[in-house]
UniProtKB/TrEMBL annotation:
Top-level division of the source organism's lineage: Eukaryota
Lineage of producing organism: Eukaryota, Metazoa, Chordata, Craniata, Vertebrata
Organism of origin: Danionella cerebrum
A GO molecular-function descriptor: RNA binding
One GO CC term, this protein: nucleoplasm
Protein name (record): Uncharacterized protein
InterPro entries reported for this sequence: Cys_alpha_HP_mot_SF, Ribosomal_mS37_met
Example of a GO biological process term: mitochondrial translation
């Protein structure tokens, strides 16, 4: 017997009283694109160190040698923040997902 995905889902979901627990108005088919989802970047880090570094540059006419302590402090903060940040491999971006969906489109009729 050939079942569609809707039949299989309905058969699995109708364990109680023989009724279909899942009634869909549209077929359960993956779309070929997804909408834009704004990623949550989180809070900005190292703002204090950056502001100290920029203030030092402004006072010393943008000479790096005079602000080496502030620059080192800023880079240390950035390294620590990157070490604590979750890896990029956790989630795909919307653009990456749409690229994959275009590469492997769904041709089922709906």
């Amino acid at each position: 017997m050939s079942y569609t995905i809707n039949d299989k889902v309905a058969r699995l979901m109708c364990k109680s009283k023989g009724k279909h627990a899942l009634k869909t108005k549209k077929p359960l088919v993956l779309l070929n694109t997804i909408g834009y989802v704004k990623s949550d970047k989180g809070d900005a880090t190292c703002l204090t160190e950056m502001s100290f570094m920029m203030a030092c540059w402004k006072e010393n006419e943008f000479q790096n040698s005079a602000c080496s302590k502030e620059i080192a402090s800023f880079y240390t903060c950035v390294k620590e923040a990157n070490a604590q940040a979750p890896g990029k491999g956790d989630r795909l971006l919307t653009k990456e997902i749409n690229t994959l969906l275009r590469r492997f489109p769904n041709y089922s009729s709906h």
